[in-house]
Amino acid sequence: MLVTSPAFKDNAARALESPGLQKALDRAKGGFLSKRGAAVAGLPEFERLRDIGRDIKNHTLQHLDFYLEEYEAKVQGAGGHVHWCHTADDARRAVLEICRRAGARTVTKGKSMISEELGINDHLEAHGIQPVETDLGEYILQLRNEPPSHIIGPAFHLNREDWEESFRASHTDLPKDRVFHERRDILTEARSRLRDKFLVADVGITGANFLVAETGSSVIVTNEGNGDLTQTLPRVHIVLASIEKVVPTLEDCTSLLRLLARSATGQDFSVYTTFSTGVRREGDLDGPEEYHVILVDAGRSNMVGTDFQDMLRCIRCSACMNHCPVYGVVGGHAYGWVYPGPMGSVLTPTLVGVDKAGHLPNASTFCGRCESVCPVKIPLPKLMRHWREREFERHLTPSAIRANLGLWAWFAMRPSLYRMATRAATGVLGLLGRGKGSFRTLPLAGGWTAGRDLPVPQGGTFMAQYKRRQRGARP
Amino acid sequence: MSRDAILGTIRRGLKRGPLPEDQKAMLRARMAAHPRHLIPARSRLDRAGQVALFIRNVEKEFGTVERVPDLAAVPAAVSDYLAAHNLPPRFAMAPHPELQGIDWSDRPLLEFEARKGAASDQASLQHGFAAVAETGTLMLPVAGERPTTLNLLPDTAMVFLRASRIVGAYEEAWDLLRAERVDPLTGGFMPRNVMLVTGPSRSADIEQTLELGAHGPRRLHVILLDDDPAALPEAVAAAPDLRPEPARHPIAEPGEPASPGD
Ligand code: SF4
């Protein structure tokens, strides 16, 4: 996915002026918080489980090479293939090759952040293969050619009118004057559309919340059931998973699952938690005949042994962004890449380069709420502070210019992202600049916007708008 | 090669080479022993308490449960349930010997086929392998006699379950699978697919508002066979609800605000 993090400030300013986004953010305010709060209150052992979750992940990371090799052997034993991919390019190539060998024309997809990170959809489309997102939120974003704004609620920023408008514009074979009386009607239309896609797809691509070394299983967690249809109906199942998803045993995985849904949606457990292990067995009536795991590094192995190793514990629950006051006013697009909020502020500079996203860690009030809710106790404020120190020491040397060229090339390879970037910019910078010892200027952003044609934000500076809103929000 | 590059970078970061054999053996022993971590107290109950907890949690997640005293009562339960929801008396059934062994003849109007699920199915009857009281979760490992598509394609999913197969915590369900299943391909116990199902399918992607029946079933109905003498209906009904107050309610009712999520 395109990185627009350097334009965080402009993005954030625009976000504050977007009535649709602000309506969506207002609607969500409090929802995530009270739901997680109730789920935690419903499980007295939750705090102890957080320590356990942290320890399981730390143990795994200390032996990551070992567990990955064990996992690989188990997948192979179950008739599956593991494709080790050091770079994003390697991963895109591997996916395309499998799809081509399968003679795929349509590929259904469950929601996967790593797929967004790799830009799988653009890559497949560029090579004549039609990817179909099946998570409802991802589906509408694909229709609208927009990036997700939240890691578990990708269409978080859209309102009902947006859904209706997009469905009318895209499902042109249906009567133009049909009425969507209620949200259920929108859901029903999407369901029947996607049913057909599921049935004709040649390949299904899912992400993975966990990989289990003991059994060679990949685990997905969903509420809709789309991920299960995606990995059950087509002949070929591809799993996209980054290396830090591995855990040793089913028991380790189970303890982390007790934390995941509660931290994410406030559910005790998601509706579907599914463990996939290899290919369809003899005698099975359904399930795929081929099973491929794309094991993606794309910058993560570099984090092992550094200050940022703690970040590899992340189980992508989204609690940190749901509880973040900055995310709460600017939304997810402002952060300019796949991962928004506090976890994105730490991860994005690590994975795409401090040159492009080094200022994101300033998008924090350092209130510490993110760390206090993180189910695996990642010290997010401390990690953001590390980045700020590094950014300070770096002084943006000529390497920044090289990085910018690299970014340009990266961009140019992804035309839809390029178009998207000019619409949905990202940025949280302004908030960061407030604290002592932090940066106010973003030398790179100037170069970026000069070459990039980003619209000039209207309506005063980010800070002015932010303050105005904060005043308005006060009772 | 990517594999060497990734493993090499990880090892450099950890400031060591590949693990020595004795350490690998230790870690393999841990995997083989798969030690449990904390098991929440909420499911540490007697049998009647566990069955009651399972039923309450299924209902909390918008599923329904009907108890039947014996296998002979299953056809009437299925037929009445379909009729009550204005559904035709037709369903796809898991080709499981236990379900196929039922005498369906006293409900001659009921039509069923033992097969996997199809997109046109309105209703299905699945065979439950086990269930977890902790969160009202069904464990459905795939097999020829338990096709995964029956869990997903019909709008109304019914699941037959023996009360004796309800355990407290997920870990206990994993142990049942470990003890009872031998995989023909791996020699291990995991089949291609194990679904843990908690309530009917749902989405809150449209304006963070909960709606049931996204891609999967809109209804989930458990037909629970009371085969556990320690958890007969009277004892289950008498079991106190020990869940903390916030754990007794769903995050939202359909049509109410909820966090979107996958
Ligand atoms: S950093 Fe922690 S709170 Fe944020 S998404 Fe990751 S696991 Fe969840």
Name given to the CATH architecture of the largest domain in chain B: 3-Layer(aba) Sandwich
Count of β-strands of chain B = 12
The general outline of chain B is: globular
**E-strand count of chain A:** 10
Distance between the termini of chain B: 34 Å
Please name the two chains that share the biggest interface, counting residues whose Cβ lies under 8 Å from a Cβ on the partner chain.
A-B, 122 and 97 residues
What would CATH call the class of the largest domain in chain B?
Alpha Beta
How much is the average pLDDT of chain B? Answer: 95
Topology:
The complex is a heterodimer of chains A (475) and B (262).
Chain A: H1 8-17, H2 19-28, H3 31-41, H4 46-62, H5 64-77, E1 81-85, H6 88-101, E2 106-109, H7 113-118, H8 120-126, E3 130-133, H9 136-144, H10 160-170, H11 183-200, E4 203-206, E5 210-212, E6 217-222, H12 226-232, E7 236-242, E8 246-247, H13 250-264, E9 272-276, E10 290-296, H14 319-322, H15 325-330, H16 341-352, H17 354-357, H18 369-373, H19 380-394, H20 398-412, H21 415-423, H22 429-432, H23 443-452, H24 462-473
Parallel strand pairs in A: 1-10, 2-3, 2-4, 4-7, 5-8, 7-10
Antiparallel strand pairs in A: 5-6, 6-9
Chain B: H1 2-14, H2 21-33, H3 47-60, E1 64-68, H4 74-84, E2 90-93, H5 97-100, E3 111-114, E4 123-127, E5 130-132, E6 137-141, H6 149-152, E7 156-162, E8 166-167, H7 170-180, E9 193-197, E10 202-203, E11 211-212, E12 219-225, H8 233-238
Parallel strand pairs in B: 1-12, 2-3, 2-4, 4-7, 5-8, 7-12
Antiparallel strand pairs in B: 5-6, 6-9, 10-11
The complex binds iron/sulfur cluster (SF4).
Walk me through what this model shows:
- The complex is a heterodimer of chains A (475) and B (262).
- By secondary structure, chain A is α/β, with parallel strands linked by helices.
- Chain A contains 24 helices and ten strands.
- Among the domains of chain A are: 43-301, 3-Layer(aba) Sandwich (Rossmann fold), CATH 3.40.50; 415-473, no CATH class.
- Chain A has helices spanning 8-17, 19-28, 31-41, 46-62, 64-77, 88-101, 113-118, 120-126, 136-144, 160-170, 183-200, 226-232, 250-264, 319-322, 325-330, 341-352, 354-357, 369-373, 380-394, 398-412, 415-423, 429-432, 443-452, 462-473; strands spanning 81-85, 106-109, 130-133, 203-206, 210-212, 217-222, 236-242, 246-247, 272-276, 290-296.
- In chain A, a hairpin with a 4-residue loop joins strand 5 and strand 6 (217-222).
- The longest helix of chain A is centred in the middle third of the chain and has 18 residues, at 183-200.
- The radius of gyration of chain B is 21 Å and the shape is globular.
- Chain B has 262 residues and is α/β, with parallel strands linked by helices.
- The two termini of chain B are 34 Å apart.
- Chain B has helices at 2-14, 21-33, 47-60, 74-84, 97-100, 149-152, 170-180, 233-238; strands at 64-68, 90-93, 111-114, 123-127, 130-132, 137-141, 156-162, 166-167, 193-197, 202-203, 211-212, 219-225.
- Chain B has two domains: 3-33, no CATH class; 45-237, NagB/RpiA/CoA transferase-like (Rossmann fold), CATH 3.40.50.10420.
- At the A-B interface, helix 2, helix 3, helix 4, helix 5 and helix 9 of A face helix 1, helix 2, helix 6, helix 7 and strand 9 of B.
- Chain A: Keywords: 4Fe-4S, Electron transport, Iron, Iron-sulfur, Metal-binding, Repeat, Transport.
- Chain A: Residues 305-335 form the 4Fe-4S ferredoxin-type domain.
